Amino acid sequence: MVGTFQCDCNQGYQTTPDRQACIDIDECTIINGGCDTHCTNTEGGYECSCTPGYALLPDERSCTDIDECEENPEVCDGGQCANVAGDFRCLCYDGFMAALDLKSCLDVNECDLNHNICLHGDCENTRGSFICHCPPGFHVRKGTSGCTDVDECEIGAHNCDMHSTCANSLGSFHCACRPGWFGDGIDCSGMTLHEKHSKIFRKF
């Protein structure tokens, strides 16, 4: 009609009922805009987005799980990474414990947890483990954690005289001369013939 007009709208807009203006179409109200997860309306269009742990595919609508373990194999330092839908979890090795969010592994301080773990020695915490520093006369026996007494007499790690007996003690040993010998056990001397006769004579 003469003296009237009507609007043709661009994509993403629609005309008002009187066809004299264009207004934005909220695509998100129509089947979520075709988005897998989140739809955000924009002026003349819309955008799809994904929840954390998912990535938008090239079609800009679909979401796919992000494998954090594949993207960062060292993400669980001190443990094994296990991918789960939209997230990941850390399965921690011995000597580590999982953080509250299960997304990292924390070193366990064995020395603080058990003050007797290095009995007779000093405990040094290390990442994922610990070391026992033993004093002389003790050692760490394979398969054990604490400091075990070394039996110097059994392994021959003593300086007792051949005419003495060796007695093991905690962290050390003692030497004692056998009957008929005298000294401190480290050096033992036998009695001379004169000393024997003198000893017999003194009995009378």
Blueprint of the fold:
Layout: E1 13-15, E2 22-24, E3 38-42, E4 45-49, E5 54-56, E6 63-65, H1 68-71, E7 79-84, E8 87-92, E9 96-98, E10 105-107, H2 110-113, E11 122-126, E12 129-133, E13 138-140, E14 147-149, H3 152-155, E15 164-169, E16 172-177, E17 181-183, E18 188-190, H4 193-202
Antiparallel strand pairs: 1-2, 3-4, 5-6, 7-8, 9-10, 11-12, 13-14, 15-16, 17-18
Question: What level of helicity do the residues show?
Answer: 10-25%
- SSE-based structural type: mainly beta
In terms of quaternary structure, the protein is: single chain
Report the average pLDDT across residues.
88
Overall description:
This protein has 204 residues and is mostly beta strands. The chain contains four helices and 18 strands. The relative contact order is 0.06. The protein has a two-stranded antiparallel sheet with strand order 1-2. Strands 3-4 form a two-stranded antiparallel sheet. Strands 5-6 form a two-stranded antiparallel sheet. The protein has helices at 68-71, 110-113, 152-155, 193-202; strands at 13-15, 22-24, 38-42, 45-49, 54-56, 63-65, 79-84, 87-92, 96-98, 105-107, 122-126, 129-133, 138-140, 147-149, 164-169, 172-177, 181-183, 188-190. Keywords: Calcium, Disulfide bond, EGF-like domain, Glycoprotein, Repeat, Secreted, Signal. One of its GO terms (molecular function) is calcium ion binding. It holds the Pfam family FXa_inhibition.
Provide a compact summary of the structure:
The chain has helices spanning 68-71, 110-113, 152-155, 193-202, and strands at 13-15, 22-24, 38-42, 45-49, 54-56, 63-65, 79-84, 87-92, 96-98, 105-107, 122-126, 129-133, 138-140, 147-149, 164-169, 172-177, 181-183, 188-190. It has four helices and 18 strands.
